[in-house]
Amino acid sequence: MTAVKALVFDVFGTLVDWHGSIKERAESIAARSGLTVDGGHLAVLWRNRYAPSMATVRSGERPWCNLDQLHRESLDEVLAELKLELPRPDREDLVAGWHELRPWPEVPASLRRFRAQRITSALSNGHVRLLVDLARYGKLEFDTILSAELARTYKPDAGVYQTAVRLLPALAAEVMLVACHEWDLTGAANAGLRTAHVARPGEWGPGHVAQPVSADLNAKDLADLADQFAAF
Amino acid sequence: MTAVKALVFDVFGTLVDWHGSIKERAESIAARSGLTVDGGHLAVLWRNRYAPSMATVRSGERPWCNLDQLHRESLDEVLAELKLELPRPDREDLVAGWHELRPWPEVPASLRRFRAQRITSALSNGHVRLLVDLARYGKLEFDTILSAELARTYKPDAGVYQTAVRLLPALAAEVMLVACHEWDLTGAANAGLRTAHVARPGEWGPGHVAQPVSADLNAKDLADLADQFAAF
Question: What is the ipTM of this complex?
Fold first, then answer.
């Protein structure tokens, strides 16, 4: 752990509760139009389209576009599937919901603990502005914000991790990605970074079971990971 | 001012006192080798080579390289001119000095005032890591750090300001550059940004006279500019 000079944090799921936040926002927006919706179901369907939508950018099939655009397109598909007629401003309000996601309870204080010792940054598939908005909303304090947008491709493309390493700059092995998703940790490890897995069993709402994940460090939440660093 | 959604801050001179900081560091490093040097003179000679060194990158004459590299090269020239034999580790220590520059006294608190109201970022010719180090050293709080490095050219190239506008993202007229240098404010205005000039008569040390500068707003320091925003 002493070799780790910078910690970069995945955001959706790892730091913020997208499922709970989008569920509430969807139900509140639908109610405004006199509709009822299972917001948790909508959030899951929407998030299911996340990886495939980014894959089209990563493969070069379509040029760079940010998550606001991808979320807007996939929301239309989800609403069509649910046969839910939402007016355009409500759809835009839902997409904006990804800029206002609640952090998991221990996250803001834990990020301050890491930052007191090491350089910290977000490293997310969210674009810079989305991450700035999330950080302001959730009081997430980083030294800077790094984003897939700077590489104009999406994680787990090695280019995203390499861009972070180039900008910090550091040796890849001096940078540790903190994330709850195996695909992200694997992408980082393939690019030579260290990895820390944070369990987020509640990420997809109730009833989902987290799988064990291989990483250099494993923590049950961010406070636990900060304790591990402090104890070293 | 209500149309301004994001404030981006020049750093060297505008937020931090490079002259005083480099002067002290040079004198202390020289003393270590039993040498005496006029640190203020060295700082001025070094800084004089700053614009010409970046011009070679901006023109495409040489590929992107960051300020650590440019500072290192120009330091060798300055020391040769001063006939000062400094060992290599001392030269590297001097170059590292640009990562540890004291902010002007009112800067940290003023940056917090701006950030409470608007998105804030650095926008400097310093590379990301240099700016992260300066921000940590001087307790400069921004929402994120934007750098010429992301555009791989230097201010006043329009590409640097346009990259900031694209990443925030905003209309150019919604972004205001805060800076003490006319060439920087002119570059920003040419790219469509709003501009605020902050006077830094002490930037080059004693005996330098600041010239009046044309900008959308003029302030005697950063606290004055924050007052102007608060009063609006």
Answer: 0.91
